[in-house]
Specification:
single chain, mainly alpha, Leucine-rich Repeat Variant, two-stranded antiparallel sheet
Length: 294
């Protein structure tokens, strides 16, 4: 009997040990993508990759990658880093975001302020918003010339786009930015539909999102679908969207990388719970034997 229990326990252990390795292949690929993005010579790749980290909450590695990018020499990368930290609710990053309020670029300051607002540091954020409203800044920080940014349509559009002023964000970009730079409708119906299906519990919605993520001809729709899948938190969809790691569009690839890491964590959590349950069931009930010995 003891030998049988030992064999069952060993079988459970081997099965559980094998499952994480299967789930982790996509996760390793995803992290390698983020590491490559963080060290890329292309500021575009750095900003897209860092911004997608915003999907990863309570992840120390993701937070540290974003924090490191706060010191990037390109403002668009600093904006991406500040925004990602706000989206991932990185409370520990508040002091670093506060320092960014002295950045020489207005768009970076607004990014930091918006994230601080999301992180409940209202005093710091409101001071910036007041300066923007009045056109001046008290004390150290932005010099007066930086306020000229508010009269530059392109720069102002970037501020609004990146910081959630009058736009619906997804996939690390703003739809208004897409319209501004590409002269097309920033609200394609399929992208809106994908976003709104994020919390639909119907399995058909999940399948539809996977199909859109892999096959839609518009990358903005594919990106919206991938992010919706990540937000749904359905581990069964992780393997299906690993193909998106090879999408031709960088926004889609990095959003998929964050989605794979996020869903892989849920898979590992479920595996550990299942292992604990099976282990407890395989343990013999000692109570009757103890009672009999008395």
């Amino acid at each position: 009997m003891h030998q049988n229990r030992l064999s069952i326990a060993l079988l459970i252990f081997c099965t559980v040990a094998a499952l994480p390795s299967i789930a982790s292949s996509g996760k390793k690929k995803a992290w390698s993508m983020f590491e490559a993005a963080a060290n890329s010579k292309s500021p575009t790749q750095r900003s897209i990759g860092i911004r997608a980290l915003g999907l990863l909450r309570d992840n120390v590695h993701a937070r540290k990658l974003a924090e490191a990018a706060l010191n990037d020499d390109r403002p668009e990368v600093r904006v991406a880093a500040a925004t990602a930290l706000g989206q991932m609710h990185a409370i520990d990053s508040v002091p670093k975001l506060q320092k960014l309020l002295d950045d020489k670029r207005m768009v970076v300051v607004m990014a930091a302020a918006h994230s601080l607002h999301d992180l409940k540091d209202d005093a710091a954020a409101n001071a910036i918003y007041l300066d923007v409203l009045t056109g001046e800044r008290k004390g150290d920080g932005l010099i007066a010339e930086q306020m000229d940014t508010l009269h530059n349509p392109k720069e102002l559009a970037m501020i609004g786009v990146e910081q959630g002023i009058g736009y619906v964000p997804f996939a690390g970009i703003g739809w208004d930015a897409w319209r501004y730079t590409h002269k097309k409708d920033p609200h394609p119906a399929r992208a809106v539909a994908a976003t709104l299906l994020t919390h639909d519990p119907d399995p058909k919605a999940g399948y539809a999102l996977v199909k859109a993520a892999l096959n839609d001809k518009d990358w903005i729709v594919r990106a919206a679908a991938v992010e919706a899948i990540a937000q749904r938190g359905d581990p069964s969809l992780e393997e299906k969207i690993e193909l998106s790691l090879y999408d031709v569009n960088a926004h889609v690839r990095y959003t998929a990388a964050a989605a794979v890491i996020r869903l892989s964590a849920l898979i590992e959590k479920d595996i550990h719970k299942d292992a604990e349950k099976k282990t407890s069931l395989s343990q013999p009930n000692q109570a009757p034997a103890v009672a009999a010995s008395r």
